[in-house]
């Protein structure tokens, strides 16, 4: 990758600033060769075998799942509520993110063969959507917090105009985080006849890598995790106190959302932190370095699964969304829908729906729908 934040093991991506570059790996360890020799041939071979397969799998799953989510949102779901605005932006972000993975997978096998323009463009796209996806996941937890915990008191904060404004700000922040990609990423011919795509920091490579890695650990993991834990713990308290129908299912969903984020992102961010200690010479041993390189490749791929699973988890936590999906599948297959509640527009602070309380209270999203209806009637 482009702006490498660590001694990259094999990936050539420009991602969350440990977007490790397969060939930046060589650059880093050539710099270290003067002080010690640590061969990484097995690590390189492992990456050539593992990364293209994983990137292709994530690309297929992420492309299919997010395209389906996008079609349902655009065809059936009114975009008047904040949650739908964030979910729509999350689907777009994930689609743009997974589109970059085939480039990085190909570069692991054949080096960078796509030219200088695509090197900078793909690296920038990767980083922008790496951060924006995490931002929109955090905003969805904020929206549910305002919707369920504060209800009618914050209706004026949960308008379409304000949600679009916040989404614009988040895209701008993600774009700002990609500035190092725009500035430093370039194609480099090394050795002669072999082109690589990575960030060239000049004589301040270590300082830049440490700074960018710190930004990813904080802006891309710690702050969103703290926010999600706080928002969903408050939502959990409301569920326990009110004891609505479907309380247990809703509580399981709140826990699942936080756990999914932690499980997918914590191993990768921990590996980045350990790489930082290695750069600072607080942690150095050839065997340890090799283990960290293996860990980075595996945990990075696990983290990328967020674009496949998290949107589905959020979308399917709503009974209404499942109804929309059934309607879409029925339309595609040309089959009449089975008798049952027809999909109704999701409610906002200015509109309500006709679903029963029992239907709505079966998950966190459905509880939010009911709170929005109370807001409309209040």
TrEMBL record:
Membrane topology of this protein: Multi-pass membrane protein
InterPro entries associated with the record: CCR1-9-like, Chemokine_rcpt, GPCR_Rhodpsn, GPCR_Rhodpsn_7TM
A biological process term (GO) from this entry: inflammatory response
Keyword Disulfide bond attached: yes
Transmembrane domains' residue ranges: 53-74, 86-104, 124-142, 163-185, 221-242, 254-274, 294-316
Major subcellular site: membrane
Keywords: Cell membrane, Disulfide bond, Endosome, G-protein coupled receptor, Glycoprotein, Inflammatory response, Membrane, Phosphoprotein, Receptor, Transducer, Transmembrane, Transmembrane helix
Subcellular localization(s) per the UniProt record: Cell membrane; Early endosome; Recycling endosome
GO CC annotation terms, alphabetical: early endosome; external side of plasma membrane; recycling endosome
Domain G-protein coupled receptors family 1 profile: 65-314
Recorded superkingdom: Eukaryota
Any single Pfam family the record assigns to this protein: 7tm_1
GO molecular function: C-C chemokine binding; C-C chemokine receptor activity
Entry keyword annotation includes Cell membrane: yes
Official protein name in the record: Atypical chemokine receptor 2
Gene source species: Erinaceus europaeus (Western European hedgehog)
